[in-house]
Design a protein that fits this description.
Structural class of chain A: mainly beta
Distance between the termini of chain A: 36 Å
Helix content of chain B: under 10%
Shape of chain B: globular
Distance between the termini of chain B: 40 Å
Strand content of chain A: over 45%
Oligomer: heterodimer
Largest sheet of chain B: 7 strands, mixed
Number of strands of chain B: 11
Shape of chain A: globular
Number of helices of chain A: 0
Order of helices and strands of chain B: EEEEEEEEEEE
Helix content of chain A: under 10%
Order of helices and strands of chain A: EEEEEEEEEEE
Strand content of chain B: over 45%
Largest interface: A-B, 24 and 21 residues
Radius of gyration of chain A: 13 Å
Number of helices of chain B: 0
Radius of gyration of chain B: 14 Å
Largest sheet of chain A: 7 strands, mixed
Chain lengths: ~110, ~120
């Protein structure tokens, strides 16, 4: 199975900060990577697929990059509604696997 | 509005069976794959399996942890996908989510939207 490792596991940031979360795959996955946002008690929301393509309706403050094994999710100008847990997921091969999550908290 | 709604979650004993439903609306259900995911209490996300659209043969794939016990099917006439779960174990306790998946030329792309989830609790 492909292991997905996110870093950091948690971070504290202030409103207006720029935040970057990294995701590393244990083997190359081309750009078959998605990012999801999950708030407590809610279903995940899809942000990005194909490593860098924004889902419809997702604000442009979210951006993704990377290919191969190393990927990043960047949130520019963090807003109160962005405090949540973020997950990366590879869908290059079965089983599809997720990172352990990165919790973004208010500083 | 494109929407997926899961139903069927329950509390049941180990070894029993349960079928979850995922009803889609606001789009042509048959044009998309459907994937199931789950999240155990306080844990991260786990992929369960998927079913492709009929365009791609409605083929399925499963995580090793559920292979042979869980079966995904679909009825495009009623816009419903099913997750049949047999021989349930305590470790299957989780919120189960379904998700619409767009596939182009055998390549999956977006995973959007997700349903609100339905809770399955397996306990003696």
């Amino acid at each position: 199975d492909i292991q997905m490792t996110q870093s950091p596991s948690s971070l504290s940031a202030s409103v207006g900060d720029r935040v970057t979360i990294t995701c590393r795959a244990s083997q190359a996955i081309n750009n078959y990577l998605a990012w999801f946002q999950q708030k407590p008690g809610k279903a995940p929301k899809s942000l990005i697929y194909g490593a860098s393509s924004l889902n419809s309706g997702v604000p442009s403050k979210f951006s993704g990059s990377g290919s191969g094994t190393d990927f990043t999710l960047t949130i520019s100008r963090l807003q109160p509604e962005d405090f949540a847990t973020y997950y990366c997921q590879q869908y290059k091969t079965y089983p599809w696997t997720f990172g352990q999550g990165t919790k973004v908290e208010i500083k | 509005e494109v929407q997926l709604v899961e139903s069927g979650g329950d509390l049941l004993q180990p070894g029993r069976s349960l079928t979850l439903s995922c009803t889609g609306s606001g789009y042509t259900f048959g044009d998309y794959a459907v994937s199931w995911f789950r999240q155990a209490p306080g844990k991260g996300l786990e992929w369960v399996g998927f079913i492709r659209s009929n365009t791609y043969g409605a083929t399925t794939a499963y995580a090793a942890s559920v292979e042979g016990r869980f079966t995904i099917s679909r009825d495009d006439s009623t816009s419903v996908a099913y997750l049949q779960m047999n021989a349930l174990r305590t470790e299957d306790t989780a919120v189960y989510y379904c998700c619409r998946v767009w596939e182009v030329n055998w390549i999956f792309t977006s995973f959007d939207p997700w349903g609100q989830g339905t809770l399955v609790t397996v306990s003696s």
